[in-house]
Amino acid sequence: SPQVIVCADEASASRKVADMIVAAVNAKPSVVLGLATGGTPVKTYANIVEDFRAGKVDFRNVTSFNLDEYIGLSGTHPQSFRHFMELQLFNHINIDPSKTFVPEGCGDDPAAHAAEFEKRIADAGGIDLQLLGIGHNGHIAFNEPGSSADSRTRVVGLTQSTIEKNARFFDSEDEVPKTAITMGIGTILEAKQIVLLATGTGKAEAIRLSLQASPSDDVPASWLAKHPQVTFVLDEAAASEL
Ligand code: GLP
C-alpha cells in the first residue's frame, strides 16, 4: 500500500518531491520521467530548476512524458500543458526538447494520436518515475471518476467540476476545453515508481478517499493502492482528514 509522507507545509512537500525526482534522474544513465501540470507541481519544478542551476542534476539523458493535454489548445496556447511545462521547467533545464512528449491538443486525429502516445511510452522502456497531482474529485491526470483501472491513453470528456476548477486559468469557463487526451490509469500503474503530491485542505477529502476506501472507479486515485511503489507526499492540510 502507498507510503505516506506528511510535511509541515507546501514548500517542504514540494522540496521533498523535487528531491525524489532529482534522485531518480541521478540514479541511472538514462531515465524516463512522467510529469504533471496544474498549480500543485509549480514549486517542485522551481526547486528542480534551482538544483539544475546548482549543478546537482543533469537532464541530458532524460525523456519525459506528460500525463495529459486539453484538446483544442495548440502547444503555444498560454493555457496548454505543453506551454506550462516549457515555462515552468523545460526552458530552464538542459532536457532535449525532442525528448519531451506532451500529448498533441491540436492534431487531426486525437484518438490515433493517443494510441501512438501510448506506444511511444512502451518504446521508451516505460516510465521510471511518474509525478502525479490529484483533482478535487480524486481524478488523476484527466481520468475522471468512472475511469477503469485498466484504461489506456485516450480521449476523455471532462466533468463539469473539473472544468469549473480549471476555469481559474482561463478568461471564462466557456473557454475551458471540454475534452482532453490523458494517460490512462492502466498506463500510470505501469510506471516503476509513482509520487503523488497534494497540498491544501481542498485535497484532504480526495486524499482520504484515495487512501482509505478500497479501490473503486468512483475514486480513480484509489487504484494507486494496487501499485507496489507509490508515495503520497502531503502537507499537513492535505493530510488533515487521515
Ligand atoms: C488537472 C490536471 C491534473 C491535476 C489536477 C489538479 O485536472 N489534469 O493532472 O493533478 O488538475 O490540479 P491542481 O494541482 O491545480 O490542483
What's this, in brief?
The chain is of the alpha/beta class and 242 residues long. Helix content is 30%, strand content 18%.
Write the layout of secondary structure elements.
Blueprint: E1 3-7, H1 10-27, E2 31-35, H2 42-53, E3 62-66, E4 68-70, H3 81-88, E5 100-101, H4 110-123, E6 129-132, E7 154-157, H5 160-166, E8 179-182, H6 185-189, E9 193-198, H7 204-212, E10 230-235
Parallel strand pairs: 1-10, 2-3, 2-6, 3-5, 6-9, 9-10
Antiparallel strand pairs: 4-8, 7-8
The structure holds 2-amino-2-deoxy-6-O-phosphono-alpha-D-glucopyranose.
Structural class: alpha/beta
User: Helix coverage percent of residues?
Assistant: 25-40%
Radius of gyration: 16 Å
Task: Estimate what percentage of residues fall within beta strands.
Answer: 15-25%
Low-confidence blocks of residues? none
Strand order of the largest sheet: 1-10-9-6-2-3-5
Q: How would you sum up the major sheet? A: 7 strands, parallel
Characterise this structure.
The protein is of the alpha/beta class and 242 residues long. The protein contains 7 helices and 10 strands. The chain has helices spanning 10-27, 42-53, 81-88, 110-123, 160-166, 185-189, 204-212, and strands spanning 3-7, 31-35, 62-66, 68-70, 100-101, 129-132, 154-157, 179-182, 193-198, 230-235. The strands form 2 sheets. The chain has a 7-stranded parallel β-sheet, with helices on one face. Strand 9, helix 7 and strand 10 form a beta-alpha-beta unit. Helix 1 crosses helix 2 (42-53). The longest helix is centred in the first third of the chain and has 18 residues, at 10-27. The radius of gyration is 16 Å and the shape is globular. The model has no long low-confidence stretch (mean pLDDT 96). The structure holds 2-amino-2-deoxy-6-O-phosphono-alpha-D-glucopyranose. Catalyzes the reversible isomerization-deamination of glucosamine 6-phosphate (GlcN6P) to form fructose 6-phosphate (Fru6P) and ammonium ion. The active site is at 68 (proton acceptor), 137 (for ring-opening step), 139 (proton acceptor), 144 (for ring-opening step).
